[in-house]
Amino acid sequence: MIKKTILITGGAGFIGSHVVRRFVTEYPNYTIVNLDLLTYAGNLENLKDIEHKPNYIFERGDIADIDFVHQLFQKYAFDGVIHLAAESHVDRSITDPFSFVRTNVYGTVVLLNEAKNAWKGKYEGKRFYHVSTDEVYGSLHDGGFFVETTPYDPQSPYSAAKASSDHFVRAYANTYKLPIVISNCSNNYGPNHFPEKLIPLCINNIMNKKPLPIYGKGENVRDWLYVVDHARAIDVIYHNAELGETYNIGGNNEWTNLNLVKKLCEIMDSKLGRAPGESAQLITFVTDRAGHDLRYAIDSTKLMSKLGWKPSVTFEQGLDITVDWYLQNQEWLQNVVSGNYEMYYETMYKQR
Ligand code: NAD
Ligand code: TYD
């Protein structure tokens, strides 16, 4: 088995922690270095089941710190990079776009540049994998699906920053021949999802009988994928993708926000022994998100046909596992739902 040292950025976050767990457990011959700044979204509790494994190392640091990133590459001589670190919440990008430019754009360029310098054109066996989002393609209004060749049309500061980082990754491939691969995934859900995002926020609020804030009329559509299936796709792409290629990843699983929240209410009424329809009374329509994208829907035919990936769970199974995880990990929830978070709630959700 070939020994490799792989840098995973953002490994203390939601998706990153599932990717780190998968690589640490599936590939004992790899040393996995998790670089994470531990912002509000980074939580080492997400990794406590694997933190003592001999092939796992955590490094706290900022991807936008050129000297730090340089030292890290010198220290570990990475064979590959799987880059997930980012500011990831659209609503926060509307109130503070600069931190999205700093981390998502500048931080990505710092990593690309260091990989280029550290690998100095000796690219054999090396790979820089950038994990991106379907939101770079913009908003679908008239049916259809995002494919890998859909023109970029980002509509929020978050998606504009991710689109920009994707462009830089391709520019490094074109200009310096850096061996890159990119994937663009639809909305993820599952254990360890920070409760500012729709699904964990609603699970938490249903548990605590708090209002379930639906932006606008709840007609916006998202294509939901179980996070472990995203981590499986990242594994397959990292190992088998053709260099320079892009792969879309999605669940073929579209839901309007209102129907999704109603479904969650149904599941939780049954699990919590509440009367059918009880939790749905918590649904509250609030002011719409500025510039709210109407619909995202991914065509992942390329990934399925070329690399043989497909989702391993249905949405019903994934939601069931997810709700059970939150019910059984209330301490995790309490630890992340801090006093600051309550204040954030108040400014973010203006009830109609
Ligand atoms: P997240 O917000 O849960 O985690 C982001 C992680 O990055 C956190 O651990 C945070 O501490 C770390 N981080 C932030 N700034 C940093 C910096 N300057 N230096 C080092 N670490 C830093 O995000 P997520 O939902 O897990 O998303 C991970 C990646 O996947 C992102 O690049 C995101 O754009 C992409 N993505 C997310 C989704 C989704 O549905 N959540 C879908 C498609 C793609
Ligand atoms: P979110 O989980 O923030 O992901 P994204 O904006 O990246 O798709 O939001 C998912 C959808 O849910 C999106 O259409 C916005 C909507 N939404 C609400 O209606 N209420 C909420 O409180 C949140 C956080 C999101």
What's the short version?
The protein is of the alpha/beta class. The chain has helices spanning 14-26, 66-76, 90-95, 97-119, 157-176, 198-207, 227-240, 257-272, 301-307, 315-328, 330-336, 339-348, and strands at residues 4-9, 30-36, 56-60, 80-83, 127-133, 180-185, 187-189, 212-215, 221-226, 246-249, 254-256, 283-286.
Please describe the biggest sheet, giving its number of strands, its sense, and whether it closes into a barrel.
7 strands, parallel
Order of helices and strands: EHEEHEHHEHEEHEEHEEHEHHHH
Number of helix segments? 12
Strand order of the largest sheet: 3-2-1-4-5-6-10
CATH homology superfamily of the largest domain:
NAD(P)-binding Rossmann-like Domain
Estimate the global geometry from the Cα principal axes: globular
Weakly predicted, low-confidence segments: none
Residue-averaged pLDDT, rounded? 95
Report how far apart the termini are: 59 Å
